[in-house]
Amino acid sequence: QGLKPIVSTESPALIFGTTTKLASDLPATDSFLGQNKVPDLQKLFQKADGLPVHLKRGVPDKLLYRTTMALTIGGTIYCLVALYMASQPRNQ
């Protein structure tokens, strides 16, 4: 008689009726329909103009950088004020 397998050796039924496609099954022309912008961005970011990389794209980068710095400084000041207020005894 021997031992019987506990786990079924049959493959389970499909839960969803669709099968998956492998990336190798897709045609190469349909995989990406946009224009490759990487070479243009590489030229922009590797240009020796003395600007740091996080400011190379102009006004949007400067605005984002200055907003981040303002929020950081404002948050630091707020934390210091809250710490000062927490360190003072309450008046009865």
UniProtKB/TrEMBL annotation:
GO terms for cellular component: mitochondrial inner membrane; respiratory chain complex IV. The chain crosses the membrane at residues 63-86. Keywords: Membrane, Mitochondrion, Mitochondrion inner membrane, Transit peptide, Transmembrane, Transmembrane helix. It is found in: Mitochondrion inner membrane. Its main location: mitochondrion. It is a single-pass membrane protein. One of its GO terms (biological process) is mitochondrial respirasome assembly. Gene3D superfamilies: Cytochrome c oxidase, subunit VIIa (4.10.91.10). Pfam families: COX7a. InterPro entries: COX7a, Cyt_c_oxidase_su7a-rel_mt, Cyt_c_oxidase_su7a_sf, Cytc_oxidase_su7a_met. The keyword Ligase does not apply. Belongs to the cytochrome c oxidase VIIa family. This is Cytochrome c oxidase subunit 7A2-like, mitochondrial. It comes from Gavia stellata (Red-throated diver).
